[in-house]
Write a structure and sequence with these properties.
About 55% of the residues lie in helices and about 15% in strands. The protein is built from 23 helices and 19 strands. It binds ligand C2E and calcium ion (2 copies).
């Protein structure tokens, strides 16, 4: 009589049962993953239960009919076979999940099916031959000569899986790769152990361990799944782009961003809002065979179609766009969802995956402002994005190497005559020496957060310049600050630190800020400006007239000067309305003791008229263009004004 212990089997049954309960709760895991995992858990429980039953029926064989024992034990062999095949298939699907090569999976399935049929025939043949097991005349269970052949089958199945893994390694996702680095060696060790110590019943334990590993890999794959829609999230979108770019596969992408979704949430509540998002995700993943959808932002979705045939791509794009022209329904609830779209066709790689993702997201930003809410990555857009990427690189390098130059545009003082102040304007040259217009790189530096570092470089340079013989001729130089800088609570401290380092009093630097900065958080700005003014810093309001601020509300703030934008005086003095506007500004500012500086003065006529209207200072090409500091000296009044 064989001496089998059931303790491990019982224990494994409990472990797998608990795993089953937890897996059932992961209802958001869609498709084959959940089905595959659940099925193998159920089969495992059944096989362990049957194994335990067989132990009892074998012990009581003398009192039971032979056919019952034969049937139960054959069924057990069959279940184990079914289970190992199911699990091998499941892991095969995981491995090939990102490989759009249906032939690979089909071939794998065929090999597994052939193995299964062979073993099944063996089980049937065993009933007559006893090659796997039989009962002797004393009704004792005996192992047949091929009893251990099951392990060989298991190892062959494992071999198929491992072969596929190495064959398609480049497209295997990282959690599955992790799984494959642990599972096969462990299965080999445990199987070997079972082979060497057959009286230890370890089948259940092996299954429990394998399921635990799978469960843990599910856990990490939930990092790749969006909990709300069950679609891939940003990580898996990135991973997908990486895999496909590495494998040089063609694909077509449609990205969309829902607009004004906050109104849907307000109207129906967040729960229903979520359901609408789910609906969008479900539609996208069903929009074409092979389509893979992702939710990579709150209201941002992407759908990837394999293949880069232009006509087919066009059809996919139309399908997605047209759906958004119809209402979305949730039972009784019905609403239109508006969206903006980006279309991208990947036939040959232009960018690496990181750059591609960055560009796609930027494309969505552009689509929001596009008249038809669509941005197609055609040659023009691609060139613009390449230029953008190039400039971002250039900015990073220029910050590292301090490649920026500062130009100074002197400002004419109408009352005292001559240039007493200047504005610092940053200059950047491309690597080949071509100048890059500030209008092009400043917005990019603001958007990418690099403007902060640039400002400090400019300020440092201006301070150095103010101490040179050329700079000493200037009472003050104004420096442009950007919006982000006012979020920094240590702004005053930092400026002070730099100026003190050069031994300069605060009054020699003026800070230019635009209306946009004020609109952002007026209270905070007001407090900050008042505090800094008390410390001797002076502020100018830049580009006045381009925004919507009303002058009297601005005059509550401690501005030393208001700079009228060039656009106001473009039609000046011929345009009477412009003249009236300038006159009104001058009058109001003077009442509040604030100076008026007019920018963009290009003609003598403009200069004369502005002088007559009472402007305090004028800045423009008529007087001087921005220039390097060294060229400024001859233009400045002689004598040290410090
Ligand atoms: P801004 O602050 O309004 O600077 C004045 C712009 O008008 C400068 O352009 C200047 O060269 C130009 N300008 C001056 N007089 C005339 C004129 O008579 N006619 C015409 N057509 N243009 C005139 P620039 O240097 O290209 O700078 C453009 C913008 O870039 C600046 O506008 C400012 O917003 C930004 N910027 C420049 N340097 C810096 C900086 O160091 N930091 C920050 N944050 N922004 C800067
Ligand atoms: Ca300015
Ligand atoms: Ca300006």
């Amino acid at each position: 009589m064989l001496n089998w212990s059931l303790a491990t089997e019982g224990f494994s049954f409990v472990v797998i049962f608990v795993l089953l309960l937890f897996t059932h709760r992961r209802t958001y895991l869609p498709g084959f993953r959940l089905r595959g995992h659940l099925l193998s858990l159920y089969l495992s429980l059944a096989s362990i239960a049957l194994n335990m039953l067989c132990v009892y029926t074998i012990e009581a064989a003398a009192y039971l009919p032979l056919w019952l024992n034969l049937a139960l034990n054959s069924l057990y062999f069959f279940l184990i076979l079914l289970l190992s095949t199911r699990m091998a298939l499941y892991i095969l699907q995981l491995i090939l999940e990102h490989t759009y090569n249906p032939r690979a999976l089909k071939l794998g399935k065929r090999v597994l099916a052939v193995l299964m049929v062979v073993f099944l025939l063996l089980i049937v043949w065993n009933l007559q031959s006893g090659v796997l097991f039989y009962f002797n005349s004393a009704m004792e269970y005996q192992r047949g000569p091929l009893n251990q052949v099951g392990y060989a089958f298991l190892l062959v199945q494992l071999g198929v899986v491992v072969f596929c893994f190495f064959r398609y390694q480049s497209s295997v996702s990282s959690p599955v790769r992790k799984l494959m680095s642990i599972m096969p060696p462990l299965v080999v060790i445990l199987t070997l152990f079972q082979y060497l110590f057959p009286e230890q019943l370890l089948n259940g334990a092996i299954l429990a361990i394998v399921h635990l590993i799978l469960y843990i890999s599910f856990q990490s794959s939930s990092n790749e799944v969006d909990a709300l829609t069950g679609l891939g999230n940003r990580n898996s979108f990135y991973e997908e782009l990486t895999q496909r770019t590495v494998r040089k596969e063609g694909f077509h992408l449609v990205l969309l961003s829902l607009q004004r979704f906050i109104q849907i949430n307000r109207r129906f509540g967040h729960r229903t809002g979520d359901l609408f998002l789910y609906e969008v995700g479900a539609f996208l993943s069903r929009s074409a065979p092979g389509a893979k959808a992702f939710r990579f932002g709150n209201v941002e979705f992407a759908v990837l179609f394999p293949g880069a045939d232009p006509q087919e791509s066009q059809r996919h794009f139309q399908t997605v766009c047209q759906r958004f022209q119809q209402p979305w329904k949730l039972g009784e609830k019905k609403s239109a969802l508006s969206a903006c779209f980006v279309e991208y066709c990947h036939s040959s790689p232009i960018w690496g995956p990181t750059q591609l993702l960055e560009n796609l997201v930027h494309g969505l930003r552009l689509a929001r402002q596009a008249p038809d809410r669509v941005v197609r990555f055609d040659q023009t857009v691609i060139s613009a994005l390449q230029r953008r990427a190039h400039l971002l690189d250039l900015l990073r390098q220029s910050i590292r190497e301090r490649r920026f130059q500062v130009y100074y545009q002197p400002v004419q003082d109408l009352e005292r005559g001559g240039f007493l102040t200047a504005e610092a304007l940053v200059r950047l040259r491309d690597l080949d020496g071509t100048p890059v217009p500030p209008g092009e790189f400043i917005p990019l530096a603001e958007e990418s957060g690099m403007i902060d570092k640039i400002t400090w470089i400019v300020l440092e340079e201006v301070c150095r310049f103010l101490n040179t013989p050329e700079g000493q001729g200037l009472e003050s130089v104004s420096v442009n600050l950007s919006m982000q800088q006012f979020a920094d609570p240590s702004l005053a401290q930092r400026i002070h630190g730099i100026m003190a380092g050069h031994g300069l009093p605060h009054r020699r630097i003026k800070l230019e800020i635009t209306e946009r900065v004020l609109l952002n958080d007026r209270e905070h700005m007001s407090a900050m400006m008042k505090e800094m003014s008390a410390q001797g810093f002076g502020f100018y309001l830049d580009d006045f007239g381009t925004g919507y601020s009303n002058l009297s509300s601005i005059l509550d703030l401690p501005f030393e000067g208001i700079k009228l934008d060039k656009s106001i005086i473009d039609t000046f003095p011929a345009n009477h309305r412009a003249a009236t506007l300038v006159q009104a500004c001058v009058a109001l500012c003077h009442t509040f003791g604030t100076e008026i500086i007019v920018e963009g003065v290009e003609t003598a006529e403009q200069a004369d008229a502005l002088a007559r209207l009472g402007a305090d200072r004028l800045q423009g090409y008529f007087y001087a263009r921005p220039m390097p500091g060294e060229e400024l000296a001859p233009l400045l009044p002689q004598g040290d004004r410090l």
